[in-house]
Amino acid sequence: MIVLSWNCRGLGNRRAVEVLSELVRKKTPTILFLMETKLTDRQMKPIKTEQGFYCLLAVSCNDRRGGLALLWKEEVTVDTQTYSPNHIDVIVHTQTSPTWRLTGIYGHSVEEHKIETWRLMRHLHARASLPWVCLGDFNELLASDEKNFRNTLLHCGLVDMGFSGYRFTWRNGRPGAGFVEERLDRVVATTDWCEIFPRAKVSHLSVSYSDHVPIMLDMTPPTQPRRRRHKI
After folding, report:
1. pTM for this one?
2. 191 contacts 138 by C-beta, under 8 angstroms
3. Which domains does the chain possess?
4. Given a cut of 60, is residue 144 above it in pLDDT?
5. Is residue 123 a contact partner of residue 155, using CB atoms and an 8 Å limit?
6. What was the pLDDT predicted at 210?
7. CA 217 to CA 215: how far, in whole Å?
């Protein structure tokens, strides 16, 4: 099974949808988590159909800002738990693995509101004890000086799953000395989730749209020598 996560920075123009279509065609995700769709739940429905997904849970944008969507194929059963402009939390049932929990996170980008993201994750942690994986745009670095993020992951029993591919997932697009790249998008999981999917790996992909790259969680990669995963 493949889960894709992408801060797509708006699906209101045809070019963005074409890029998404190519991504879905090449990677064939079973579950797709989108952030910053900048669409209402009604506007997301034709995109669900066009991309070939069976079900959709969409959180509408607010004045053309934000907007989340979780789409999935019919080979999985997804039970919605909670959602907000900053998260979608579901329980996933399949015929080939124990039940597990998936949370898509879209972290607050404004510094004084980032603590709300960590409060949300701690609240979600207290709600259920299933094997748990979280992915998305956390809008924060897991650097040694970012104690709130590290402490939240520790409190929730979540560990960074590393990645293969280009190190950074976001760039500001400014020329020259103002150019900045960071790793804001990631996948974190509990130990019991990793035990269910011991071969799961995370890849940073590349697309020609958005300032964020998609991240792919492949839970059943082909048998091959394990490549070294990057951390932090």
Report:
1. 0.92
2. no
3. 2-218 (3.60.10.10)
4. no
5. no
6. 85
7. 7
Residues 6+ apart with CB under 8 A from 214: 4, 5, 6, 23, 204, 205, 207
Which of 181, 188, 186 lies closest to 214 in space, CA to CA? 186
- Residue 224 pLDDT level (bands cut at 50, 70, 90): very low
Whether the Cβ atoms of residue 41 and residue 34 lie closer than 8 Å to each other: no
In Å, how far are 21, 148, 150, 188 from 142, measured between CA atoms? Answer: 31, 9, 7, 11
The candidate with the shortest Cα–Cα distance to 133, out of 164, 170, 95, 89, is 89
Mean pLDDT of 150-173: 93
Beta bridge partners of 186: 136
